[in-house]
């Protein structure tokens, strides 16, 4: 009888331990899956900040170039800027203050609903090799995401390749409608490689390099460094090619926009070699 009780006790203990180990294993798998999902979402949100940077840069550079070319208002409106955007210029000697107003109801620009104002200023000097453009966002929203920024762009008339170049200060905060928030600090260099001087903004192509850090509300911090220049064709909402390295504690990989197709698809390859597809919003 004692032998039977011992066997029963052993079997019971083994069963309990098996359930404990199984439960722990399942919990670990669940936590790992949740962590990977969180990491993937953060990478995707960072790509959305890239898109916001692109739109802001496109708008400011286009309006600035139009003003410096002394184009008439009707030409500005026809040059890829919709009529629902109001542009106001205050000129005092060589100083220019420009307000780009999308209205409180918003205006559709390149497939995105934009609300609020971009206000930028600069000192006009046709002979200067460098011009600093300072800008602020006022009640600014892009596709319901609140964008907070007070930044600067340094324009160089000619870089070492003989091309115009814009160095962007990347101090920006993005707040999504669900309360998720991320901020970015760093530098992005935009080299104007095609279309400069053509008189049309739609044929312009930029190549972007740089490095930056994104910090999320939960404390997670990602560092980014461009590996292959990101190709920005104005006719496409997204980068068409290029890649950057992403690193975070216990997590990292390569974000790749592809080989030149204009689409909303990208890939992310984790450090362990696992590759996932990313659909950009």
List the keywords.
15-stranded antiparallel beta sheet; 46% strand; 2 helices
In total, the number of strands is: 15
The Rg value, from CA coordinates, equals 25 Å
Low-confidence segments, given as residue ranges, are: 1-7, 71-78
Helicity level: 25-40%
Name the shape in a single word. Answer: globular
Order of helices and strands: HHEEEEEEEEEEEEEEE
Helix/sheet category: alpha+beta
Main sheet overview: 15 strands, antiparallel
For the terminal residues, how far apart are their CA atoms? 70 Å
Q: Mean pLDDT, as a whole number?
A: 82
Beta-strand portion reads over 45%
Number of helices: 2
Structure, described:
- The protein is globular and about 60 Å long.
- It has 281 residues and is of the alpha+beta class.
- The protein has a 15-stranded antiparallel sheet that branches.
- Mean pLDDT is 82; it is low at 1-7 and 71-78.
- It has helices at 2-68, 73-78, and strands spanning 86-92, 95-101, 107-109, 112-123, 130-142, 145-156, 165-169, 172-175, 181-194, 205-216, 221-233, 241-248, 251-259, 265-270, 275-279.
- A hairpin with a 5-residue loop joins strand 8 (172-175) and strand 9.
- The protein has two helices and 15 strands.
- The N and C termini lie far apart (70 Å).
- It is 26% helix and 46% strand.
